[in-house]
Input
Amino acid sequence: MLFPSSAKIAKVSLLSCSNLNLRFTRMASNQKWSVEKSRILGLPTEEKRKLYKSDFITLDKVETWSQYFDLNKGIADKKPTDDDLNEFRKITLDSGKNKELSQKVSIFKGDITKLEVDAIINAANSRLKAGGGVDGAIHRAAGPLLQDECNSIGGCPTGEARITGAYNLPAKYVIHTVGPQNGSAPNLKSCYENSLTLQKENKLKSIAFPCISTGIYGFPNRLAAHIALQSARKYLESNDLDRIIFCTFMPVDVDIYETLMQIYFPTN
Ligand code: AR6
Output
């Protein structure tokens, strides 16, 4: 038969219609995140604040480490262990910068999604699919377009980092980094370094880190804090930004950071 039956034509055109629909839907969702991302980034702060799902904390309300240390006298009694000092000796401080740098870092106890900073770091998984822990909290507060943008990136290997918009979050951007699941210290170090590289490339002035890998991925909290503080200290000695915030969500991390910040960021 030379001509296809009308049933066949109908079937083929139905198929191409549904393919076309699928393509349009995909395109529409692609366009939606990218249009919204640009629109939100261009909003005046008061307008952007109407998008937030809950209360927010501005940078000026987050004490610098230097202020925090002065206000919480008891912290001085928290002494590093011999193991801490051995780990600390892996880097050399430019001690002339101590005072200045103690004003460029902070401990923040609480929920990272509340921070109105340039970027918050997400402890993501390599598929960049919303999971539990801080990742879940970030996706819930940002709204579904964050997942759409993550889908457009496709994934992120362990130790690397990717940047997206932050949508309904108070932050401007989210930097997604994938911490190690096998306790690899070099991979965790790369997470901090690659996130900081994105900070520089995007000219971000204030960023907040959660304790990457120390939750579901099970990295030891104390060593993770050493790696975070070593990376931040070395980076701040030669790069200009206003603030790196260490977001400590669990009491164990508050205690570790209050102890270790005293050696990595002495206030005098
Ligand atoms: N704000 C700040 N820190 C938080 C918050 C929050 N709202 N919620 C949890 N934390 P985790 P990981 C702390 O498990 O170990 C996800 O399923 C938490 O107490 O979030 O790198 C991803 O999709 C802990 O101190 O991240 C991955 O599959 C820290 O954030 C996997 O978990 C990190 O804990 C990543 O595991």
User: Anything to note?
Assistant: The chain has a mean pLDDT of 92. The pocket of AR6 is lined by residues 111-113, 123-125, 131-135, 137, 179, 210-217, 247, 249-250, 253 (CB under 6 Å).
